[in-house]
Amino acid sequence: MRQLLRFLYGIGLFAAGILHFTRTAGSQSIIPRQIPFKKEIVWISGVIEMLFGGLLLLNKAVTAVSRLLPTFFVAVFPANIYMAVKNLPLNGKQLPKPLLWGRLPLQWLLIRGARKLNQ
């Protein structure tokens, strides 16, 4: 079960990281206006996601990733809140409001799951 969880997190994180570079504008749009250096934040978070995803897929440094990933998910949570509050599109596609708000509890499930990657 842990292998499957690592694989799913690995693929998901790596793919999300790639999207930070291929759809930079969409990722920038969900960062609250008050925060500067949006492009740099998007790129750095994309690198982190690709790094974490790659490490999980290679089954390397899983202990470190399982400890750092919950903090990373908490750090990006304000962008998800901002997206729901402002009703922003996801990669150019407008999602129904209930779906935008429904993503918020999902983030907490991702955090809990990340803690189980190395158990």
Description:
With 119 residues, this protein is an all-alpha fold. It is 76% helix and 0% strand. It has five helices and no strands. The protein is globular and about 35 Å long. The model has no long low-confidence stretch (mean pLDDT 92).
Q: Give the proportion of residues in helices.
A: over 70%
Global shape = globular
The residue ranges in which pLDDT falls below 50 over 5 or more consecutive positions are none
Structural class: mainly alpha
| Main sheet: strands, sense, barrel | none
Q: How much of the polypeptide forms β-strand, as a percent range? A: under 5%
Query: What is the succession of H and E elements?
Result: HHHHH
User: Radius of gyration, Cα only, in angstroms?
Assistant: 14 Å
Mean pLDDT value: 92
- Tally of alpha and pi helices: 5
Oligomer: single chain
How far from one another are the termini?
10 Å
Number of strands: 0
SSE topology:
Elements: H1 2-22, H2 24-29, H3 38-57, H4 62-86, H5 97-115
Helix pairs in contact: 1-3, 4-5
Keywords:
119 residues
Short description:
The protein is an all-alpha fold and 119 residues long.
